[in-house]
Amino acid sequence: MTASSYNGSSIPWFSMTLSPNTTLSIRNARVLLPDGSFQLADVWVEGGVIREIGPNLARFRTAEASAQAEATPTPTADTVIDAHQLTLLPGVIDPQVHFREPGLEHKEDLTTASRACARGGVTSFLEMPNTKPLTINQTALNDKLTRAAQKSFVNFGFFIGATSENLPDLQTATPTPGIKIFMGSMHGDLLVDEESSLDRIFATGTRLIAVHAEDQARIAQRRKEFAGITDPAIHSVIQDNQAALNATQLALKLSKKYQRRLHILHLSTAEEAELLRQDKPAWVTAEVTPQHLLLNTGDYQKLGSLIQMNPPIRSAHDNEVLWQALQDGVIDFIATDHAPHTLAEKGQANTTNPAAEDASSTTVFLEPAKVPSGMPGVETSLPLMLTQAMQGRCTVAQVSQWMSTAVAKAYGIVGKGAIAPGYDADLVLVDLDNYHPVLREELQTKCGWSPFEGWNLTGWPAVTIVGGQVVYDRGQFNQQVRGRALTFNA
């Protein structure tokens, strides 16, 4: 195979396929090292694995330069990227997404979602079980793994969903990062809200349990109380902070009873953060979404039902407490809860740019119970958080810790989450010097909209690399790249 090079304009590597001996060299990058420091260095990748990191690696020299250095000329790599001092980070691992395949492909599918991942610097994802059919047994899990192997541009893993009846499947289905329990905001078989059923699941086995923690009984009662109100902001009143706190308290109680590994998905309230600050066993982790950090109930005026999600967007006070909990390590990492719906389903089919105008002046809203909850996120999460870093809210190293390293550690994902020899070459080169707005016409997600449309962000991925292969470069995609199933330590 002849060597090729990258200069930001031509893409000769599109015809390349990975073999055990395929090599990639990244030159002149500002590399984030595992200790949180940055080094201007070169990275050598072979067979999809990082082999060497260091300044001015001899193997990157041209034959002429090697001769001038009185060194033995060494062969160049199959692909050479001159990063021009862009920042090189571990690829993002998004541990909570809903990619809608199978059964709901009009909203999203594995091809469009993973392409959005590649554009957003997400090199691995963990997907939830509320598809059609539900992912509640080995057969359904195998089907998703097969689909992803054929379609996904990035690496993948799939949760097994808990019902009140599938306890044996929860112990044997593999590979999976864990068991997903919907304690609320769900209907049908995936709703497990009875404490006796929850107790049986927590008591059986050792596999990680990830919970959507909302009190379904309280939500049902408050939905009746506020019936007929169509203001989108009522969603945050119906599914209030107490509903989230009640369920998180119950999950924590059961986890402590059995010392069962527990992960609390999309923590959204100040009260939950304070609960964990006071009482968080070593085997419990929690996550937060960018939207629960950056959006609040004041944004309903502009965005309306676009920002309806479960658990709901909260107050500005909740934003601040969640930020502090993330900074302090009470919250361990970030997930997007990417959950796309069409604009028609959101009741905003006639708005040309819903995130750029006052939705309340152009839209007649439905009751929240008649609007699907969720929003897209994989494409914008990294630039959103890196913009916060560049504005002084946190550091770039913290963002990478929250969006990659800590996720890999929590789920025992093998070979991911750091730029170091022996780790998989899942990498993203980001541009921290320039800003670019979120534009609808550039979005890859099938739903075609973002609540952050118009936000001017920095840290957009320039190049995304999956398993040592360039999958995305400044708006263009390598259609031949496919991710692999993630491996989880027991």
UniProtKB/TrEMBL annotation:
**Which Pfam families is this protein grouped with?**
Amidohydro_1 (PF01979)
Q: Which PROSITE patterns does the record associate with it?
A: DIHYDROOROTASE_2
GO biological process entries: purine nucleobase catabolic process
A cellular component term, taken from the record's GO annotations: cytoplasm
User: Which cofactor names does the annotation list?
Assistant: Zn(2+)
Question: The organism sits in which domain of life?
Answer: Bacteria
Domain named Amidohydrolase-related: residues: 87-471
Q: Which UniProt keywords apply?
A: Hydrolase, Metal-binding
| Molecular-function GO terms, alphabetical | allantoinase activity; metal ion binding
What role is this protein assigned? Catalyzes the reversible cyclization of carbamoyl aspartate to dihydroorotate.
| Family membership | Belongs to the metallo-dependent hydrolases superfamily. DHOase family. Class I DHOase subfamily.
Tell me what this protein is called.
Answer: Dihydroorotase, multifunctional complex type
Q: Which organism is it from?
A: Chamaesiphon minutus (strain ATCC 27169 / PCC 6605)
Q: What is the lineage of its organism?
A: Bacteria, Bacillati, Cyanobacteriota, Cyanophyceae, Gomontiellales
